[in-house]
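lol forgot to send this yesterday, sorry. struct tokens for the thing we talked abt
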């Protein structure tokens, strides 16, 4: 199926992404705990006697923060009313690492039930090469009550403020030796469950190759290929670029034309979208209704060309929830149930979206058409910034969003906005930035096709450029958000429910992109070892074993072994 078969009209001029200027990012802070003076200590209330009741405590627990944002996690002390002390928070009932963030989505063609709701954090997790450590635990006394006849005394001094000390993982930490890493991985890498295994481990601070197994041999990456598309997007597009969807005046009175701008994240049901910061169809329709009555709705899909489904994508991929036809106008990535990350997609996403718009403006069902040149804009909505789109596509491994971003890279670099043009654009951008693509052959941007082949070395080359301890390399400065977009082991995205049992040491310390197809499992990302050294890795398995109970856990153990290495 071709995009031009869906639209039945000649393509019009494509506009590049719009760019917004933003302010300077806030600087990291190192916080110290403020110790109270001797006088302040004397003013603290004493613990209550056993025979006296306690006043209810009004303190509040802090809201959890996502571990995958582009800044280090900073944990604030509990909020409370002035003059009222706090009591220690109750112990968590669970010992694993529940962290707020995206719900887990099985990769590619694996289908599961609707994802569980995200859980509140109980442990501190890794965020962009930073290890957060608490300066200490604050102990708060509870007011002593004196009964009905108690004399009111001077209000107690505010409790000591507990602020986290932030220790960056830099090149100053001891460097593992190749021999030490090889010893650490010898057992996990020999696990027969993994089948044919290729892989690479690199120290990004020194560039040293610490371990490799057929790391230049091309293998099927599945969704770990998204690392390359994400890197090309960050290297070629502005982080603040947004995708714009417009409605313009048609050639006849009462006719409007929706001009698809390549944003697949527009929300049809506000508050239920799987895409944070998404524009809404209600907003777009509301703007148009204010301009006057609408009797006819057309939709223009000329931003994209070529086939709407990728090479070697399987017919069941749409019904299985892996993908929808790639067109420049749709709602919620083509999902039928907008809030279900893993849910069934529609085979006609543009028609479904245009009909939903027509219903909102009181018109009949929409039809394909062409926007008149220079037509008046009646309404416009824009997506979240590119950096956030990249984060989202990596966290939930969204194939539709990835292919849309690949087409924007193609438009920006002067290539055709199609599967062929997107692949060429990604390759061109990576090659221009000094990455060796020898042995790499891929036909889409998402990794959904089994025809894709890349060596593990290419993945660790890109991750190494992103994870260098300094940003004097222009590539590193642009690629930093790639690391924070990686799911956190046991905490977010497609790794939210992984890293239990033998792999528990990696929980919170590993960030990685997953990949799963039939007889293919991959894991590529970063880990901080026990000495505070950041390492990058890529593992690709060609095993036919059970992915959920055998292969994925074995890959998790491999990465967790790097966390526990300290192999200097």
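and heres what i got for the seq, position by position
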């Amino acid at each position: 199926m071709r995009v031009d078969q869906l639209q039945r009209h000649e393509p019009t001029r494509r506009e590049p992404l719009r760019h917004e200027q933003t302010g300077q990012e806030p600087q990291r802070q190192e916080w110290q705990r403020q110790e109270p003076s001797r006088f302040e200590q004397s003013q603290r209330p004493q613990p209550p006697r056993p025979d006296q009741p306690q006043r209810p405590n009004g303190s509040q627990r802090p809201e959890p923060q996502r571990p995958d944002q582009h800044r280090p996690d900073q944990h604030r002390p509990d909020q409370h009313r002035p003059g009222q002390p706090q009591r220690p928070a109750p112990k968590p009932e669970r010992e694993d690492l529940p962290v707020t963030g995206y719900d887990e989505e099985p990769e590619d063609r694996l289908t599961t039930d609707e994802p569980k709701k995200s859980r509140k954090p109980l442990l501190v997790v890794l965020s962009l090469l930073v290890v957060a450590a608490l300066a200490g635990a604050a102990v708060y006394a509870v007011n002593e009550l004196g009964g009905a006849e108690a004399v009111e005394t001077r209000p107690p001094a505010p409790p000591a403020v507990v602020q986290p000390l932030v220790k960056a993982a830099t090149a100053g930490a001891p460097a593992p030796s190749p021999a030490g890493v090889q010893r650490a991985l010898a057992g996990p890498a020999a696990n027969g469950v993994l089948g044919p295994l290729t892989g690479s481990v690199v120290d990004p601070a020194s560039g040293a190759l610490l371990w490799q197994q057929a790391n230049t041999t091309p293998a099927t990456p599945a969704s770990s290929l998204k690392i390359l598309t994400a890197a090309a997007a960050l290297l070629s597009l502005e982080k603040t670029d947004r995708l714009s969807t417009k409605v313009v005046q048609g050639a006849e009175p009462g006719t409007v034309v929706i001009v698809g701008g390549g944003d697949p994240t527009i929300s049809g049901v506000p508050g239920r979208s799987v895409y944070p910061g998404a524009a809404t169809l209600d907003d777009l329709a509301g703007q148009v209704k204010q301009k006057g009555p609408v009797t006819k709705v057309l939709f223009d899909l000329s931003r994209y060309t070529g086939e709407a489904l990728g090479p070697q994508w399987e017919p069941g991929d749409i019904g299985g929830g892996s993908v929808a036809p790639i067109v420049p106008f749709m709602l919620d990535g083509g999902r039928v149930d907008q809030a279900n990350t893993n849910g069934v997609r529609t085979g006609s996403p543009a028609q479904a979206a245009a009909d939903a718009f027509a219903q909102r403006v009181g018109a009949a069902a929409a039809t394909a058409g062409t926007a008149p040149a220079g037509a008046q804009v009646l309404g416009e909505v824009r997506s979240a910034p590119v950096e956030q789109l990249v984060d989202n596509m990596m966290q939930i491994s969204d194939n539709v969003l990835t292919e849309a971003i690949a087409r924007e890279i193609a438009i920006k670099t002067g290539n055709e906005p199609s599967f062929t043009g997107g692949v060429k654009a990604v390759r061109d951008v990576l090659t221009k930035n000094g990455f060796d693509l020898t042995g790499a052959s891929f036909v889409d941007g998402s990794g959904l096709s089994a025809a894709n082949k890349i060596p593990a070395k290419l993945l660790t080359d890109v991750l190494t450029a992103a994870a260098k301890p300094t940003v004097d390399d222009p590539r590193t400065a642009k690629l930093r958000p790639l690391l924070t977009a990686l799911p956190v082991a046991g905490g977010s995205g497609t790794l939210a429910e992984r890293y239990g049992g033998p792999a528990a040491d990696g929980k919170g310390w590993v960030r990685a992109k997953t990949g799963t197809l039939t007889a293919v499992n991959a894991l590529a990302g970063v880990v901080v070892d026990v000495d505070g050294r950041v390492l990058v890795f890529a593992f690709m398995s060609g095993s036919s074993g059970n992915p959920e109970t055998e292969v994925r856990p074995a890959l998790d153990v491999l990465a967790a072994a790097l966390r526990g290495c300290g192999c200097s």
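The first helix runs from residue 3 to 7. anyway ping me if u want another try
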